[in-house]
Amino acid sequence: MNRLARLWTELCNRTDYESCSRPRAARFRLDTIHGLLERLGNPQTEVPALHVAGSKGKGTVSHFMERGLRSAGFKTGLYTSPHLSDWRERIRVDGDFAADEHLADAFQAVLDASGGEETFFDLLTAAAILTFKNSACDIMILETGLGGRFDSTNVVEPLASAVTSIELEHVDVLGPELADIAFEKAGIFKPNATLWCGRNIPESAMKVLAEQAALCDGQLHMPATGAAAAAGFDHPQVHMRDNFALAAAMLATLPRPFSKTAEFLYELATQEGALDLPGRWERRLLPDGRTVILDVAHSANSLASVLQAFRSSYPEQKRGVVLALRDDKDPQELADSIIERVGPHPIGEQWWTAPAGDHPRSADPARIAACFGATALKGVALPAGPEILLVTGSTYLVGAVRPQTKSLSSP
To answer: What whole-number percentage of the chain has pLDDT above 90?
Structure first.
């Protein structure tokens, strides 16, 4: 085992709230990571930051901003979670995995400075920030892991912060109402930052976001309607167009030297494939030549959006859907919500449910199947029959399926 793999294993032995089954709220606090970063020399103060939270879309907005900044010539650091196939996806420098030696040095420094109380995500976040500093990044983009107020990433004084969307999710930690969730996510709003939110946020949540922005002496900004279409970003999913508009608007209002970077994102929008993202409406090939679309949508709104795009993009083909969920979702409530938005399964569209990869909090496929009128699979599989498949509902399912497919551009 090489040095980096050994240190990653040591890091993973710490509490991991992405996968643990016990109550998660009790250990959410910021004093541990603040103490850790102080012992590391406060690297979070040395790289300008952008900070993104939200129920859905936060990873996409972060990726879009990173690509615009990188295209403009800035050296970027990007921290996202979870990963699809390789944990190094979480910590990127200039669009690629961070150098092994920089990661290993950061992991060693973080573990040496640890007081023992930090969680896995505390340690990984600190290592990412230290890696960005040691890699001489011009700017870093941080996606929150869960919530915002007590998320490990909430240690920066960013140039801009955004809450992309608000939906009922992680209610055991964030609270039972949309207003509660909005309050937690608005915890990333800071004085002296430009504060943003996505469009189509429910009224009760928007009220809370505006109140929290005002407490920071800031105005809450929102991207203009139709901004993505005006830029030529013609994505089949509405929420992806909204994510593009938010990313572009945030870049357009950054201070110098980053103030012109939105123009570079607009330019990328006109180049075929330049803004394609793994696991976001990602079209790939199965070994038998069929097309599969991989999408990590897992909320009611995003699942409805991807289903609507799937049906409108492939109206004549025999379609199939493979769905997985985590066990913190109510499958019946989700099924009812999706039917309300896009209607029941059309005749001829087959559905299957599968485990969410090997995730310990995967929901029982049989329980999901009963709610969605689907056939439960015993394991992760790509069923025969449909001419085109959609795999969705879980990042972990997409991550498990992706290695069984290949890029459309592969020989």
So the answer is: 81
User: How much is the pLDDT for 22?
Assistant: 43
Note if the pTM is more than 0.90. Answer: yes
C-alpha distances out from residue 278 to 143, 157, 409, Å: 16, 29, 14
How far apart are the C-alpha atoms of 295 and 281, rounded to whole Å?
A: 5
What CATH number has the domain bearing residue 392? 3.90.190.20
Q: Which residue, 269, 291, 318, sits at the end of a domain?
A: 269
Give the per-residue pLDDT at 16.
59
Q: Assess whether 265 and 291 both reside in one domain.
A: no
Sheet holding 282-285, edge to edge: 375-376, 350-353, 319-323, 388-392, 291-294, 282-285, 406-407
Whether residue 362 is contained in a domain is answered as yes
Please count the helices (runs of H) and the strands (runs of E) in the chain.
15, 15
- Rounded Cα distance between 211 and 216, Å, is 9
Q: How many structural domains are present in the chain?
A: 2
**pLDDT for 169 beyond 80:** no
Please report which helix (H) or strand (E) contains residue 134, including its range. Answer: helix 120-134
Structural contact between residues 352 and 322, judged by C-beta atoms closer than 8 angstroms: yes
Choose among 84, 182, 90: nearest CA to 145: 90
10 Å Cβ neighbour count for 289? 6
b/e per residue 3-41 (b: at least 16 CB within 10 A): ebeebbeebeebbebbeeeeebeebbebebbbbbbeebe
> Residue 219 belongs to what domain range?
3-269
Give, for 64, the enclosing helix (H) or strand (E). Answer: helix 58-71
| Mean pLDDT, rounded, for 12-24 | 58
Give the count of beta carbons closer than 10 Å to the beta carbon of residue 273: 8
* Average pLDDT score over residue span 148-163: 97
- The H or E element spanning position 269 is helix 261-269
Residue 113 belongs to a domain with what CATH number? 3.40.1190.10
Residue count of the chain: 411
Q: Give tens-digit pLDDT for 117-153.
A: 899 999 999 999 999 999 999 999 999 998 999 999 9
Residue 274 lies in a domain: no
